[in-house]
Amino acid sequence: MMVLGLPRELAGLGSALARHWPCGTPYGLRITSVRRSASRQRDPHPWRLALEVDWHDGARRGRQRLHGLTWRDGGSHAAWAQARTQAWADPAAGPSLLHLPELDMLLWAWPNDPGLPQLPALLDPAAWPAGLGPVDLHRHQPGHRASLRRQGVWAKTLAAPVARRLACRFRHFAQVPAAVMHVPRLIAVDAHTLFQADAPVRPLRLADRPADHAPALAAALAAVHQAPRHLGGRRSGDHWPRAIERRRRKLRRVLPVAAPMIDRVADGLLAQAHAVATGPSTLLHGDAHLDQFGVDAQGRLWMFDLDEMCCGDPLEDLAAVLSRDGLPPGIAGRLQAAYREAAPALWCPQRLRWHRGAQALLQATRAFVFQVPDWAAVAERRLQEARSWL
């Protein structure tokens, strides 16, 4: 079973599955995601992947979702021995756990996820408030997080035991005046999982005349930047220089023809990084873009996804919103003007320009990482944009 498009280290996946698959014959394989570790020396798992296998045994056909991890230097053998002592949920068909020693890989069958051992229980309706419908999975980032919904109630579950910290953020912003913003109502929380009420909103970018909501969005960002810093996670003091160098290395590797432009952008950002670092440091949303905000039937603004909150230059959030492709017409200028009015003490055109350049560099990298159509042209366009801000 040949699989096209896999990296060289995983090229034998199809044949390995054919040898080790215990229930019938696998005849189809789709790789839904492949992720190479960014820190290949520190991370024990060089590759993480998600896949779907079609199989048949003559009388039956099935499809099984799998999550895979690779090890180095035969490490999967010890992991296999350890994993076999643990209890795993029964999948719809096939094995819960599969070892491919020739690839130094373990595969877990859905709904098992070694990073989210709570996931099978959350897919059981008994884990939810009574009287609701079936559980739907909306997002699954293997080993890290998943979002599930059941008739008006959302659950966000995370590998790290940080859900109570996130709950503190939602409780804080629930006390912000309703005229500024709303956040979803918290229902329950444990170490790894938040249960929240659904929010009756449309995404801000799909609202009627989204540019008219720019003042409300600016006020919401200002409210985040005025919130207590202890609500955010910690960043190292050299966060941005390190981030710029990481992206320089990645882009030079995948787009060598653009190496001179990549270096000009990275060097220009690094030359000004110290001046930016002396600016104010506040709480940040940390993943600000229009799809993190919605508008309800009364025209009120709602904010979501407080997972990435940290501390840093508040204009990073503003630049992140402004730098995404597909902004509705007219919203960029109105948002900048409204933020300048809402938070005059935090406003600085020079720092905003730097962050616009940094965000453009990030978007150039994301074009490759997420394999957007014609990613190389998109990355070069983003590099030109970054250069224009310096």
UniProtKB/TrEMBL annotation:
Domain Aminoglycoside phosphotransferase per the UniProt entry, residue ranges: 170-347
InterPro entries xref list: Aminoglycoside_PTrfase, Kinase-like_dom_sf
Pfam families: APH
Protein name: Aminoglycoside phosphotransferase domain-containing protein
